[in-house]
Amino acid sequence: MTKKELFFKLKEQLDILYKNPRCTLDYTTPFELLVATILSAQCTDARVNIVTKTIFPKYNTPEAFASLSENQIAKMIQSTGFYKNKAKNIRNCAIALVEQHHSQVPDTMEELTKLAGVGRKTASVILGEIFGKPAIVIDTHAKRLANRMGLTKESDPVKIESALRKFIPPEFQFDFCHRLVAHGRAVCKAQKPACEICSLNEICKHGIKTLEKTKK
After folding, report:
1. Cα-Cα end-to-end distance for the chain
2. Separation of alpha carbons 126 and 33, rounded Å
3. Which CATH architecture has domain 3-21+136-215?
4. I want to staple 128 with a disulfide (CB 3.0 to 4.6 A). Which of 56, 97, 113, 174 is the partner?
5. Distance of alpha carbon 174 from its chain centroid, rounded?
6. Taking residues 77-83, what's their average pLDDT?
């Protein structure tokens, strides 16, 4: 089976399991999603949503964050972890948006990744979620599942993204990644994937091996 054939078989099942995949970060504007995604590094989306629920009613524009000090931002986001570095990045990102982009979140990978705290993963979230562009988001879940399922053997997120882009049609990329994340949280967990109850276990490389072991 080719990687493309494997993808379509996985997609068929994941589409059934997760009919309406969505971003689990709460936001109302592109800038709010940008901030929330920066905060989500090494932090759960649930925790980020708790933090931003108190911040965004007061501060939700590049101008507002640019007017704050790093210490002020750090105090507000402390529970998300790595808060000093995140505070610095968010403030510098906000300043750059004000000074270079008329306070608008840009819509290209090149421009987004020039912003402080914005790597390819964060940029891909913005491109796919806000602008509806083809985007492959490689977070910890997508990385783990892409390897377990047999879609790639790469371990570097950039290389995984490049590998998947070769056989996943653009129109399916973003939603497929959403479904990988959903499946990673619900079934294919990091410590112990529930292969015995997984509906992908006759397609997924890891699931097939696990079933073979249980039969012996």
Report:
1. 25
2. 7
3. Orthogonal Bundle (1.10)
4. 174
5. 10
6. 97
The amino acid that residue 107 corresponds to is D
Q: Which two tokens stand for residue 36?
A: 């929330």
Alpha-helical (H) ranges within the chain are: 3-17, 30-39, 45-55, 62-66, 70-77, 83-100, 109-112, 120-129, 140-149, 157-165, 170-186, 205-215
pTM here is 0.94
Are 128 and 174 in contact, with CB atoms under 8 Å apart? yes
Model confidence at 216: pLDDT above 70: no
The catalytic residue positions are 121, 139
- Rounded to whole angstroms, the Cα distance separating 12 from 8 reads 6
Q: Decide yes or no: CATH 1.10.340.30 for domain 30-129.
A: yes
In the structure, what pLDDT confidence band is assigned to residue 214 with cuts at 50, 70 and 90? confident
What distance in Å separates the CA atoms of residue 82 and residue 74, rounded to the nearest whole number? 9
Beta-carbon contacts of 106 under 8 Å, excluding residues fewer than 6 positions away, are: 112, 115
